[in-house]
Amino acid sequence: MNKKNILTVQNVVWAAILLAALLATPHFLKFYHQDLLIYLTINVLVVCSYRLVTLTGEWSLIHAVMMGVGAYTASLLFIHFGLDMWFTLPFAGGAAALIAALLCFPLLRMTQFYFLIGSFAAGEAIRLTWIEFVGVFGGTGGLRGVEAPILWGIDFIDPIPYYYLSLFIVSVCLFILYRIENSRVGLTLHAIHWKAPLAESVGVNAWRYRALAFIVGSFFVGLAGGLKVHYLGSVSPNQMGIGFMVFILIWVIVGGYNKFYGPIIGVIVLTVFDESIRTFEVLRPAIYGAVLILSVLFLPLGLESIPGRLRSWFGVGSTPHEPPLTDQ
Amino acid sequence: MAILEIKNVTKQFGGLTALNDVSFQVEEGEIRGLIGPNGAGKSTMFKNIAGFYTPTSGNIVYRGENIEGKPPHTISEMGIVRTFQETTLFQEMTVFENALVGSHIKGRTDIFSAVLGLDQKKQEAASEKVMEVLDFMGLSDRKDQYASELPLGSQRALALSIALVSEPKIMLMDEPFAGMNPEETNHMMDLTRKVQESGITLVLVEHDMKAVMGLCHHLTVLNFGVVLAQGTPEDIRNNEKVIEAYLGGA
Amino acid sequence: MELFLLSIVNGLIQGGFFALFAVGLVLIFGVMGVVNFAHGELVMVGAFTIWLLHAQYGLGYIPAIMVAIILVTIIGLLMERFLFRPTRSDPLAGLICSIGVLFILQVAATLVGGDGPSKQVPPPFEGTLVLFEFLRIPYQRVFSLLISVTALGTLWFFLTRSKFGWALRAVAQDREAASLQGINSNRISIIAIGVGAALAGLAGGLVAPLTNINPHMGHNVIITAFIVTIVGGVGSLLGAVLAAVLYAMLHTFMTVYFGGTIATICGLILMVVVLIVKPSGIMGVRVSE
Lengths: 328, 250, 289
Description:
The complex is a heterotrimer. Chain A is mostly helical. Chain A has helices at 9-24, 31-54, 63-81, 85-107, 112-132, 134-137, 159-181, 184-201, 206-232, 242-255, 262-276, 284-298, 306-313, and strands spanning 143-144, 150-151, 154-155, 234-235. Chain B is an alpha/beta fold. Chain B is 40% helix and 25% strand. Chain B is built from eleven helices and ten strands. In chain B, a hairpin with a 2-residue loop joins strand 4 (57-62) and strand 5. Chain C has eleven helices and two strands; from the N terminus they run H-H-H-H-E-E-H-H-H-H-H-H-H. Chain C has helices at residues 2-32, 39-56, 61-84, 91-113, 139-161, 163-173, 175-180, 185-207, 218-232, 237-258, 260-277, and strands spanning 128-131, 135-138. A two-stranded antiparallel ribbon of chain C has the order 1-2. In chain C, strand 1 and strand 2 (135-138) form a beta hairpin. The chains are: A mainly alpha, B alpha/beta, C mainly alpha. Chains in contact: A-B, A-C. At the A-C interface, helix 5, helix 10 and helix 12 of A face helix 4, helix 9 and helix 11 of C.
């Protein structure tokens, strides 16, 4: 909520450099890595929308499935009605938000452990529905044949235009998410996390705010799902299962969930790391698991906290604030 | 005129009766003390008024309206705000942000206005209100410190500020003097009087007899969930039953 | 009618198997407050051990089960000492660590067994028990049921009659109060996870000849364990056993008539309904407000 002038010359210069770097990146990459860059961009939106959900202190295990809801919605609209991505994306987000809104009634009666398990169960039920109803959702194989749009002669099936497109969409979404977190709504979400009864004592309807975070977070991850399926071309139940959910958790936790940019750092660093251990093939999940354990044990505030730690190590600045994962 | 009426409130937990047919009235503008030995049901009474519990039977009437069983956020929106036992603050936020949460009712906004910045006027007004209260409570110098870094006296003052920012009609204060040294207690008593003089009705649960006797206009004594006596501090001091059950034992 | 009776018997057998690992999950959660997401992988490791030692290297079935139990118990103890104990103040951190373990165990199994198709272990007990001329139950399943019941009975006896059992329940109720009474909660945690892991290893050993063994089989196990734990009441061992039998019957029937996926969806919905209507489960007592 604090008012700082963000339009200083220095900030503008940094923003320009960042933008130039983001725009230039794909031109230095091979085709395969350009693909990866697109998925990374989309995953940034996935982790940032997840962070919004976790702001109230509740960790859900349904976020990956919500992305699937978006992806399936976009696919069905494209396959059956021939809708282009411009039209499927809002529906993809909307469908995830709608499902989230319905799930609020059972799920948000629970907190902590119960919410975690409850959201996992609800997610699995949705995922198994995709597997079971083969006629609609294509069963285990999922849906395929979704295409990227063509506009003004630009075929977005090419990685570079699609990267620019997703960069733009994701940036807009991140801006919105950032604004939400730094507004009074964000303040209230934080307040509910740290002391829900105190927040309620000054008129905060905690249930409504938890629902709001869950629905808005689901909207953006649904949109990310739509964005992904229009490039990848297909979606399957296993792609959006607990495995991907675990990756979201790892990115957020390793990056650090106390700051807006923590999860972004997490997803970028780990994606690069993942590429660098590609040669290990089957060992990769185990390396990931080990990284997850080590970061929880030795870097509970995530990569984001390293600069602060270094500063305090050398005796400059104050020690980082260390709130626990869950409020006791 | 009574601003708050407790009418025959009973609260049971399983087989245990925490409050048994409790009735009393709080006059507008007064400081009302709720005292009694540990386990007498004082905090339970507070939680019933503030909506954290629903009475098993009986009514709680605020300005002629039944409020028992309404959720906490609705009750605080109607103007009854509680403070908590010990120091309950958002430790991870700054003093300013803590107090800002208190302005929720006036400052709340929908998500679209928040993103588009349409609520700027409203938020500026809320910030002004917050600064006014922090000045009033002598906390404006510390507004950018984390709540966890404040000394005990200032933490309690901040807890009061959060409640005050929400512009309550009645403030329920749960043991505001617990754990304080005499100096801090005196400062807190001054603050409490200032709050009352600004027109807010206060109900406080407290063990510190010096503070209670010095501050309150009327006292209600609870013992084992029933009202033992009511009256001015002078009456209570001389009440045989109270001396036997409570003051004598202390 | 025959199908109905057979389903009941199969449900009972399956229920005994469900109860074995669900009880372990409940024990670990009750005593240590941590959800062990890798519990299904402990069962998987047990089953893999049988495949490797019994089916590949010809070790006897019973000795192979013994090795499986010991191996899985050791994994459990390592998890307690190096993951759950340092993160005790933060239950979510413990859960996240167990997800890390899940990955590591899956990879370990892949390395041992290769990436090929699911493995099968030929049933060590051949032949079929025939009751009333139409109930045909393979001896392998009879054996599985007998062992589950024996193990659960022993556990019940241990928890209700021994001093350790008493201490275990005391820690599960209130760790601080228990330590004030001189109970060493670290030792109790070790026993809880030791017993929980041993039961998971045993469950893996029993299920090995009856199922397809692959590194990802833990997924269904943990879903089942969650359903059973929630429906039975978090922290209630008796509830977990009852819920295991009930859910196994329900699942067997639903699978016969509607297919396995629908059966699991129904289980998940049942679980969410229980979470809403009676979060304490069918046998549980609400611990805190």
